[in-house]
Amino acid sequence: MKKAMSMMEIIFVIVIIGILAGVAIPKLFTGRDDAQILKLKETLALIRSGIEQYKQNSLYTDGTSKYPDGLCLDAKRDKGTTCQNNMKNSNSFFAAVLKNPVTFGSKQGSWDGWTNSVVNETFIYYADNNKNGYVFEYDKNKGTFKCLNSYPGAKVLPCKKLGE
């Protein structure tokens, strides 16, 4: 009766473990990226739902159906004004959603925003520490919060990863 494993059996087991590790380790890293994209998609759904709820609430309270004037500005809207400071000091629903980063100690997983016209606000969600991000634009006349595939001066990630 054989009580020990042969060298061939040991090598065979090591090869199988190596193959399994080679398949599992890349999935571990892509799983993290997929989780961040899923969190961003949930945040987008929350923002868009909030925009529609605001419109419905304005119809109910004052009889006019209007979208929010801005997602991060509660005060005066000036062209070119950054809204990051207003987001930190604001108590509005949108500011609460857009000012909370997913991670701490880096820009990854955080939002930044600025007003680029009287009508539109632009936001960037930093997907990594290299300042690559998804850029979104809010149009107060249409009530849209859409992903942009390009923006001057920003390293923009493609919207197709978000299904847009």
**Which quaternary structure do these chains form?**
single chain
Gross morphology: elongated
Mean pLDDT, rounded to whole units?
76
Tell me the strand percentage band.
15-25%
Describe this structure in words.
The protein is of the alpha+beta class and 164 residues long. The protein has helices spanning 7-62, 84-89, 93-99, and strands at 111-115, 120-126, 132-139, 144-148, 155-156. Strands 1, 2, 3, 4 and 5 form a five-stranded mixed beta sheet that branches. Strand 1 and strand 2 form a beta hairpin. The longest helix has 56 residues, at 7-62. Mean pLDDT is 76; it is low at 74-81 and 101-105.
Short description:
By secondary structure, the protein is α+β, with helices and mostly antiparallel strands.
Short key terms for the protein model shown above:
164 residues; 5 strands; 42% helix; elongated
How are the elements arranged and paired?
Layout (H helix, E strand, L loop, with lengths): L6 H56 L21 H6 L3 H7 L11 E5 L4 E7 L5 E8 L4 E5 L6 E2 L8
Parallel strand pairs: 3-5
Antiparallel strand pairs: 1-2, 2-3, 3-4
